[in-house]
Amino acid sequence: MEENKAKVIEQFSKNANSYVTSPSHAEGKDLSMIRDWLNPGRNWIVLDIATGGGHVAKTISPDVKQVFATDLTKKMLQNTANYLKNYENIYFVLADAENLPFLDDTFDAVTCRIAPHHFPRPDLFIKETSRVLKPGGKFLLIDNITPEDPELAKYMNGFEKLRDNSHVKCLSASKWEQLTQEHQLIKQKNNIHKKTFPFSNWVRRTTDKAEERKRVKDFILNGSSKALNYFRIEQKDGEITSLKVDEMMALFEKQHQ
């Protein structure tokens, strides 16, 4: 497990600025939907777990009292703090999503976007999220998810791991629902949509060498016709131009004890 976290720190330290500028992180319909879904109060204190490039913290900070933006990777967090230096109500804290340094029932809302597939123990992440949320508090989860079909799930996690060795595992929507229910987080709203990755940008962000990119390409193209169709692999002149994965945006509320 510690080895996995070391890989995350290495990967995100090396690519800190690319996660600030990456279109799949800096843009997307989900960012524009966050404020509507959360409907934040002016006095709210919000925790953004694994903030990365700080896009969620930046989005919600004008509407709330304070945002605590946390990340496991110091270099990533420092880069994001510099990028968001004019946002005076965002506080940056080095923290592990599976062992949060906050007291119970602290936050009005917790957010986590495009990060949980890097967590070795998503069950601990959900347990900690529930612990630090106030009763009645909201949890907004956004991440890539696998299809429920085990063959397609294995294929997706296979190419993601080849592309990014800090990738642990994307979960299915049903698995996230199981984990959240186990920790008193009740689903209020859910949206699953296709997200397009332009292949070249996507694969170059986390690989250094042409041979690594070729391994990713070969793995994808060797998939079954069912897999190629599901992930809508587009090709031109023998090269992959794009693929689509499922992204889930889900809102949960912590039950009152």
TrEMBL record:
It comes from the Bacteria. Residues 47-140 form the Methyltransferase type domain. The keyword Methyltransferase applies. It holds the Pfam family Methyltransf_11. GO terms for biological process: methylation. Coiled coil: none annotated. The keyword Nucleotide-binding does not apply. Keywords: Methyltransferase, Transferase. Gene3D superfamilies: Vaccinia Virus protein VP39. InterPro entries: Methyltransf_11 (IPR013216), SAM-dependent_MTases_sf (IPR029063). One of its GO terms (molecular function) is S-adenosylmethionine-dependent methyltransferase activity. PANTHER family: 2-METHOXY-6-POLYPRENYL-1,4-BENZOQUINOL METHYLASE, MITOCHONDRIAL, METHYLTRANSFERASE. This is Methyltransferase domain-containing protein.
